[in-house]
Backbone:
């Protein structure tokens, strides 16, 4: 019994030392990047299925997306069009990173595929393509360099790639 108690005590001490070293925020940020990626994929699928443009607008202040079925084809939300919202995970936000992947001016959404008729917007077309290359940046309230994530959309295919910022400030491709 004494040996068992000592073994359990040592295991508990080792667990107590290891637990603070686990970066749970990294997993939250990765989940948030997957949420962005899945929302964009959902909008792309919706555009193909409904045979109409679908707008995805990024609301920086409220940390959410607005998805609009552009049934009028005017490139903006019009009364009567279907709209829905997706919220980023609690505490997460769109963020302006220290540097961008595409060399654009720092912003929380960059690239030729982003239009700004109010909120930065990317458009998915019925053929599955997007309005152009775009990168959406995410961060945490902690503001740590390694918390930044990016989701890049390639125009013609609307292929999505995710990135993590390393602690040295360089971006690296990520397989979330």
Residues:
């Amino acid at each position: 019994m004494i040996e068992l108690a000592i073994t359990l005590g040592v295991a508990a001490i080792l667990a107590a030392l290891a637990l603070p070293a686990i970066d749970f925020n990294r997993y939250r940020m990765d989940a948030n990047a997957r949420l962005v990626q899945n929302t964009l994929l959902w909008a792309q699928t919706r555009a193909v299925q409904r045979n109409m443009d679908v707008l995805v607008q990024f609301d920086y202040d409220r940390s959410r997306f607005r998805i609009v079925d552009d049934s009028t084809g005017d490139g903006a939300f019009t009364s009567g069009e279907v709209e829905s919202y997706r919220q980023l995970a609690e505490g997460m936000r769109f963020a302006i990173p220290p540097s961008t992947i595409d060399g654009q001016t720092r912003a929380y959404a960059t690239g030729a595929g982003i239009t700004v008729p109010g909120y930065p917007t990317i458009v998915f077309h019925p053929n599955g393509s997007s309005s152009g290359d775009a990168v959406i940046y995410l961060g945490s309230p902690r503001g740590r360099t390694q918390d930044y994530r990016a989701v890049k959309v390639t125009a013609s295919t609307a292929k999505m790639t995710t990135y993590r910022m390393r602690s040295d400030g360089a971006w690296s491709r990520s397989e979330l």
In short: The beta strands are 54-59, 64-69, 83-87, 93-94, 109-110, 121-124, 134-139, 149-153, 160-165, 171-174. The domain at 24-174 is CATH 3.55.40.10 (minor pseudopilin epsh fold). The chain has one domain: 24-174.
